[in-house]
Design a protein that fits this description.
The chain has 102 residues and is mainly beta. It has no helices and 8 strands. Strand 5 and strand 6 form a beta hairpin. The two termini are 18 Å apart.
Length: 102
């Protein structure tokens, strides 16, 4: 597994709708032993409270693909990945750029 993936990665997407503004925050944590965690939080100004999905997983790296398995739901997620530019602190997963936060 590439050690450059180890750490915590975060992205925030802001969506402007006709009568609402939403933020979608996604955080991935990849550990050197192959454990991972995916935390997705959405917040709607209209609703006024966050909704969070926090899932434990394990992962393997197959070249430029990360395969994350979520045992609680028996789901598997496959994502292409690469580093953006020359910085080891910007990770692109499925075309979305994440910043290293830890």
């Amino acid at each position: 597994m590439p050690s450059v993936l180890v750490g915590t990665w975060k992205t925030v997407i802001v969506i402007f709708l006709d009568e609402d503004v939403q933020t979608w925050t996604t955080v991935w944590r990849f550990e050197s032993a192959g454990a991972c965690r995916l935390v997705k939080t959405s917040f709607s100004l209209l609703e006024g409270f966050p909704r969070t999905d926090d899932r434990a997983c394990t992962f393997t790296v197959l070249g430029r693909e990360i395969v994350a398995d979520f045992p609680a739901t028996s789901q598997t997620m496959r994502m292409t990945w690469d580093l953006v530019g020359v910085s080891p602190d910007r990770l692109r997963l499925e075309g979305i750029v994440y910043e290293r936060v830890e």
